[in-house]
Design a protein that fits this description.
Elements lengths: L5 E2 L4 H6 L4 E2 L3 E6 L5 H13 L10 E6 L6 H11 L1 H4 L4 H7 L1 E4 L4 H17 L2 E7 L1 H6 L5 H22 L3 E6 L18 H5 L7 H14 L2 E8 L2 E8 L6 E8 L2 E3 L1
Parallel strand pairs: 3-7, 3-8, 4-5, 4-6, 6-7
Antiparallel strand pairs: 1-2, 8-9, 9-10, 10-11
Bound molecules: adenosine-5'-triphosphate and magnesium ion (MG).
Amino acid sequence: EHNGGHLSTRLKGLDDALCGGIPFGVLTELVGPAGIGKTQFCLKLALLASLPEAYGGLDGRVIYIDVESKFSSRRMIEIGSKSFPEIFHKKGMAQEMAGRILVMRPTSLSEFTESLQQLKISLLQNQVKLLIIDSMAALVAGEQGQGAPRQHLLGWHISFIKSLAEFSRIPIVVTNQVRSQIRDEACQYSFQVQHREKALHEHTEYDSHLVAALGIHWAHAVTIRLVLDSKSGKRFIKLAKSPISPPLAFAFNITSSGISL
Ligand code: ATP
Ligand code: MG
């Protein structure tokens, strides 16, 4: 159970399925192949968390752990000015919104680990309303070791990140790149619920490479998993794991105003 409160994604069907949006106090994972839109989704969430409450935002700061240097404040402002022209036409607003995003670029897992303790303090002191890690897999990719020792090391990080969410009561959104999951039989998901039991066994379709990289402990630590993928040139986002919803999928587009259903 999370602590109540959600960050609306402004994607109507998804917000409805999630009872309001990305929940506070737990981990939400965005997974999908390269170029599908995970970072675009994160940019939109960062923007939404920093927007004034009058516009449905959280009026807060955002800590954005940008592991692969893919964060773009220019793109975030483009999304903002197209989606909320009435806010962004005000003088200095774009700079103010961009200034609310604290971008960190750790170059190794150990550097990230060192910043975690500081992060814990910052989260409480600085009106931080969202933490994004884009991406977790990239963060651990350079680490030595395999199998049990590596998973033991990661286990500590995973527990720490999860506890950060619980104690700060903010949403933590983590991305991970996986190969496309589309196989022919996967079409049975298409835009409706057909196999309720799949929800219970969602981890069995979890990309085996990611499980190898981050371990099954990670798969279980995540409360919400959104899988982004494409089929026949159409992008869709699937709510693959949720304590409150069956698996559901929604077609989405990426335009100059960002991700939309
Ligand atoms: P990776 O795993 O490599 O980080 P990703 O899932 O984070 O990939 P994104 O960078 O979020 O992928 O998405 C890239 C896609 O976003 C591109 O395919 C591009 O089509 C789309 N995109 C980016 N900017 C715009 C824009 N201004 N207008 C329309 N589409 C855009
Ligand atoms: Mg990305």
